[in-house]
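Quick entry, no commentary yet.
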Amino acid sequence: MGNKAKTREDLSQELIILKNKYKKLETGFKEYAAHSKKIEAELRKFSVAVEQSPVSIVITNLDGIIEYANPKACETTGYAHDELIGKNPRVLKSGETPSIEYKGLWDSITSGNQWHGLFHNKKKSGELYWESSTIAPILDSNGNITHFLAVKEDITKRKEAEDALLLKNQQLAELNATKDKFFSIISHDLRSPFTSILGFAGLLKNEIGNYTDEEIKNLVEIIYNTGKKTFELLENLLEWSRTQTGAMDYDPEELNLEEVVLNVISLADQIAKTKNISISYNIPANLSAFADLNMINTVLRNLTNNAIKFTHKNGFVGISAIRKTDEIEICVSDTGIGMSENIKDKLFLIKEKISTRGTENEKGTGIGLILCKELISKHNGKIWVESETGNGSVFKFTLPLNENR
């Protein structure tokens, strides 16, 4: 049988149903359009925020190739947008960030973790800058890494300010250490020998008639030696104070090193003889340095006296020099007691108090090596020590060659 023909009422009902479906579709389209506009507005807002961000924003693919860089990234690095796209961020490497930092970064972000740290990078112009970076993986709906996002801030000015503050603090600490050292020497090291001098001189003054000639000679010798040591300390202290206040004149000239060394040996020979220590030298003929005579005399005098002080009786002290490409290296060596690594690390530091007595219980000046470092620094030279406990010491320092040669 054929289908029964639809009545007018049936057609009317179907039309009503179609109209209702249309209205629902129309409403749905309107809601979708409104939602799309809202999403577009949000995207536009985020896009503007990223484009106008005061920090650099860079997106790379899984191979680390840059796919997006905002204007701030271009401004900071000095590269145009087209120059960054398709490049690897390693184009910014200065060579000053350790490789282990990059390995740690890569291991972290490829494991799905966020990484934060500092880079010392290089701009297109070659200028170095500090950058604080946060790098994180971008995940898809299934949790798979698709890209990497880097948010970076140029902190060069802040880093420079922090470094300047750190330097100021270090300088302040050194000034305080210098002041403490100065007053320590005045209150103890300088006062103590005067007590001895006055005490023995007082005995002679009041009891000289009760002493034999030999006893008087011994007392006078003690007073003389103590006075000589005190004068040496005072001389070092005055020179050191002049280096700290900038009052010491630096007057370099051509110096015949052999003549300078022979003069120092003649002054130290009397002290060496009391311990039967031999002093030898090996200076190439006509070897000259461009240096301040008074300063170099002071350095050699302190190093030679120290070598004698820490060498046992019947030992040896040697002074030598060799010419290198652009400097002269001078060595003061001994066959003495040597020193540990711990002592070596502290020898030239103003904040450290090294008070080791010599092999005959001799006291030091407490300032000699620090003064030596200051004076060699005036010549843009270096001073250091090579030593092992029980195997003697070699103090070395460098001086510039005669500027006319």
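second:
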Amino acid sequence: MKYFPKIIPIFPLSNFIIFPNTTVPLNIFEPRYLDMVNDSMKSDKLIGMIQPKNSADENGIPKLYDVGCLGKIISFRETEDSRYLIELKGKIRFQIVNEVNTNEKYRSVEVDYNEYSNDLSDESEKLNFSDLKLIFKDLKSLFEKRGFIINWKSLEKQSLNETINALAMASPFSIEEKQVLLEAKNLDTRKNKIAEILKTYTYDNYENTTLQ
């Protein structure tokens, strides 16, 4: 397996996930995360993205989910008001081993990548786009209800991996549901998990994100 650091800085962000080989823009403005990006740019440009849980420890620090995704900064720009606009490309998912105490204001963790070594494989999974379109029929309705129009013709030009992961990241699902998608071992499992989640939604109550 390609070498990745065992100890990484993390950026806990609610309702936000990235997958390997996907690219996302981030607007960094909080001082501790400006420090994190500065330090990362001086070394390997790697940052771990992970979701915080809706609970905290005895010190009031948000607990973290066990699985996140390592990303590499591939674009960096500083704004006139001292924010950083970066693009992060997903590399490989990781599992937290334990949190590491440092002198930095941001959090760092020791991680293990073995469970998700297949993220580095170039092999594409055999799924038909017609099957994908059928499965995401309800997701398409869900997006359109929020004013998002999915251009299926455009998606057909992408790989199925890119399509499924992009829809999973942009989906209006809960923190817990997105975490389920992130932890799904392969593309087929992720596709089926999305279909299962969609079945639990009642569209009449969607504006309140009510699960039935």
